[in-house]
From TrEMBL:
Residues 101-221 form the Prepilin type IV endopeptidase peptidase domain. It comes from candidate division WOR-3 bacterium. Keywords: Cell membrane, Membrane, Transmembrane, Transmembrane helix. GO terms for molecular function: aspartic-type endopeptidase activity. This is Prepilin peptidase. The chain crosses the membrane at residues 6-24, 71-91, 97-115, 122-142, 148-169, 190-223, 235-256. It is a multi-pass membrane protein. Belongs to the peptidase A24 family. Gene3D superfamilies: 1.20.120.1220. The keyword Transmembrane helix applies. It is found in: Cell membrane. GO terms for biological process: signal peptide processing.
């Protein structure tokens, strides 16, 4: 029955993560006032706040003002529950799972905020980085500090290198010609990448970055071809880093070992 507990925990926390994603960028308290409709401001009743089920019963609309409720809310709840369950089946019901669930939680909240607002609150990333480093010092969490350290270095180093390449190869030369260029990445990506690396380790971070870059490029191309992205429109990199972090967590070491055997038999 442990998997049932983990699944329910994921649904409940997923609902809370929706609150965090909405309120943190706006500088609002995540505990007060209680959950309410952002349009009519009416407080959401307890029986209307049951993850996924309430959304289905209400047919995706507020009970009071009847305005549509974003599909993102049940999606976040479902994704959180799914990732929690996958974590349980992958890592088992022990202390390592606690570390993994904290990591998954931070990924969801930070990716959601970046998707909506194109910002990555450094306070959350540094908090996660601290938790990752501290738990790596404790053997029962099963992440050697050396692995955690190199994961953080690879993650932060990649983001810094990408920023420096953009800044000194493109932005500065064009600026001298009077052509303004936008930054390729915000500084929030650096601690976020470092945080991911601390939790997934060096090999996992290499795979995470590869997944993030490939999916980000494909998303951008698809958006441009389909007309959903306009020229110069910014695409937040955080959600792709988060996706890479999930892949790196669950199968990063195995994927990298398989690839190395493939290219270096």
């Amino acid at each position: 029955m442990n998997w049932v507990i983990i699944g329910l925990l994921g649904l409940i926390l997923g609902s809370f993560f929706n609150v965090c994603i909405w309120r943190i960028p706006r500088g609002q308290s995540i505990s007060y006032p209680p959950s309410h409709c952002p349009r009519c401001k009416k407080r959401i009743r307890a029986y209307d706040n049951i993850p996924i089920i309430s959304y289905l019963i209400l047919r995706g609309r507020c009970r009071d003002c009847h305005q549509p409720i974003s599909l993102r809310y049940p999606l976040i709840e479902a994704i959180t529950a799914l990732l929690f369950l996958l974590s349980y089946f992958r890592f088992g019901f022990d202390w390592q799972l606690v570390r993994v669930l904290v990591f998954i939680s931070l990924l969801i909240v930070l990716a959601g905020i970046d998707f909506d607002h194109k910002i990555l609150p450094v306070e959350l990333s540094f908090a996660g980085l601290t938790v990752g480093l501290v738990t790596a010092l404790i053997p029962m969490f099963q992440m050697p500090i050396k692995e955690a350290f190199w994961g953080a270095v690879i993650g932060a180093g990649f983001v810094f290198f990408a920023w420096a390449l953009w800044r000194f190869v493109l932005v500065r030369p064009f600026s001298r010609m009077g052509v303004k260029q936008k930054e390729a990445m915000g500084w929030g990506d650096l601690p976020f990448a470092a945080m991911i690396g601390v939790f997934v380790g060096g090999k996992g971070m290499i795979v995470a970055l590869a997944v993030a870059v490939v999916t980000g490029v494909l998303f951008g191309l698809a958006g441009r071809i389909g007309g959903r992205l306009k020229k110069g429109q910014e695409v937040p990199f955080g959600p792709f880093l988060a996706l890479g972090g999930v892949v790196g967590l669950f199968a990063g070491r195995e994927i990298l070992d398989w690839y190395l055997k493939l290219v270096m038999p």
